[in-house]
């Protein structure tokens, strides 16, 4: 849509929520600008008044698009699904669409929030064990669901929002030394997705100089 200005993604390179949005933009072929928000530097750049004006929760990402600002990754993904052409991120079939949303919410609401940076900073010395516990618990729930829904990808044979959520969470699991071999379906899907160009920009490859 040539008349539109490029979206602006305010995010942190290691943020799985920011990574979801980058994947979705890549899958849709959407060019965008990035503004780095370093969650560590200067006590956390997300805590500034300037950033709070963009995202009152003082989290990443915040996305400026089409004259509005959106601050939740799944809301961003569903917005671009509804307003931009390109590969579908939600299946046409309502049952499969519900399964995609279920898997996405399980990860985005049930696993990631309890092992994000803000929570781990509050936990302190036990942060590794805390993150491992909640990722392990979440994957134990996710694995049997994916056994039922997956084919080539999380739900059937089309890449969806569920896959967009899965890959960053597997990265987090490996970062926190969770043994992903326990979860063969999750491991297989992640390996398949990491061969897709849009998923290859891991946090370590998109560090924006941090």
- How much helix is in the residues? 40-55%
User: Looking at the structure, what is the overall shape?
Assistant: globular
SS class: alpha+beta
- Straight-line N-to-C gap: 32 Å
- State the helix count: 8
Radius of gyration: 17 Å
Topology as a string of helices (H) and strands (E): EHEHEEHHHHHH
**Beta-strand percentage?**
5-15%
- Uncertain runs: 204-210
Major sheet summary line = 4 strands, mixed
Q: Give the mean pLDDT.
A: 89
The order of strands across the largest sheet is: 2-1-3-4
Tally of strands: 4
Overview of this protein structure:
- There is one protein chain.
- The chain has 210 residues and is an alpha+beta fold.
- Helix content is 48%, strand content 7%.
- The protein contains eight helices and four strands, in the order βαβαββαααααα.
- It has helices at residues 16-28, 49-52, 73-83, 94-110, 117-123, 127-149, 161-175, 184-193, and strands at 8-11, 33-36, 62-65, 68-70.
- It has a four-stranded mixed β-sheet.
- Helix 4 (94-110) packs parallel to helix 7 (161-175).
- The protein is globular and about 45 Å long.
- The two termini are 32 Å apart.
- Its cofactor is glutathione.
- Its main location: cytoplasm.
Furnish the topology, listing elements before pairings:
Elements (H helix, E strand, L loop, with lengths): L7 E4 L4 H13 L4 E4 L12 H4 L9 E4 L2 E3 L2 H11 L10 H17 L6 H7 L3 H23 L11 H15 L8 H10 L17
In short:
This protein is of the alpha+beta class and 210 residues long.
Index terms:
alpha+beta, 210 residues, four-stranded mixed beta sheet, 4 strands, single chain
